[in-house]
Prior knowledge:
The two termini are 20 Å apart. The protein has helices spanning 48-56, 90-96, 108-111, 118-129, 134-147, 153-156, 166-178, 196-213, 224-230, 248-253, 258-265, 305-309; strands at 4-17, 20-33, 37-41, 64-75, 78-84, 101-104, 184-188, 216-221, 233-238, 241-247, 315-318, 321-323, 333-334. It is α/β, with parallel strands linked by helices. The protein has a nine-stranded mixed β-sheet with strand order 6-7-8-3-9-10-12-11-13, sandwiched between helices. The chain has a four-stranded antiparallel β-sheet with strand order 2-1-4-5. The chain has a domain at 255-334. Helix 4 (118-129) packs across helix 5 (134-147). Strand 4 and strand 5 form a beta hairpin. The chain is built from twelve helices and 13 strands. The relative contact order is 0.14.
Amino acid sequence: xxxxxxxxxxxxxxxxxxxxxxxxxxxxxxxxxxxxxxxxxxxxxxxxxxxxxxxxxxxxxxxxxxxxxxxxxxxxxxxxxxxxxxxxxxxxxxxxxxxxxxxxxxxxxxxxxxxxxxxxxxxxxxxxxxxxxxxxxxxxxxxxxxxxxxxxxxxxxxxxxxxxxxxxxxxxxxxxxxxxxxxxxxxxxxxxxxxxxxxxxxxxxxxxxxxxxxxxxxxxxxxxxxxxxxxxxxxxxxxxxxxxxxxxxxxxxxxxxxxxxxxxxxxxxxxxxxxxxxxxxxxxxxxxxxxxxxxxxxxxxxxxxxxxxxxxxxxxxxxxxxxxxxxxxxxxxxxxx
Length: 337
């Protein structure tokens, strides 16, 4: 049985602003097993990216801060003990970040430094975490560029980010993230700015790295097609909460939460070209704006009076499948995390 390499328990990340304390991530719990691909889905503003930044220790402070919960990381070399990344010192977090836990950001042009060559940025990552010579680090940089399918790697290594296409820059981001063979790779919407053909290539590359190197991947996306293609399990987030989670087949074939049903219903269907695309009415509420009741109540098609008065608990509706909804209270068991 595989052990979780990363375990998030009751995570709470708040932002302290002029409008008060804003809970961007509110009591979120999930885990990623060794070699697993976990998808985190939801509309913009649901807390997906803040969750990933919390894991990486990159929430800007001020105004953001992790105010509760724990993030447990288990290394392969010592799988019986876990480090709480919320409590470790900054020096130790820098040793882990980019080395054992790495991240691919959404927009490579803002993540890559325009003043330095591609090779320099990969070499810097390798030398920061491993005691190797510059020559060895450069060789590793070229190998990584080749691994992610970049042609002319020996020449590209000396070029600057602006000289590459969007797809090539995203491949460079993956090369930097994978340079130290991380145990966990966090990908924050890695294909959003790319055309469909390049998207497919990037996803195929990530799948290959997952299979060949056993890298656990936390994939943040709003594209359910990508989830179906890539993921083993799915976490659905809404307004800073997890509203449903389970294996990918169950979530896509038998969704239980009205929000998940709405997301899946919004997908275009090839055999219904004349029909207008469905969209969930309303918008994601501002974090912290709903003080009472279910956060999805105002947009829910199955809402009833209790939904406006009480906050539903996360319930296990079947083995490995949980949902935050009063509709399943009789058949569900509260999930204690």
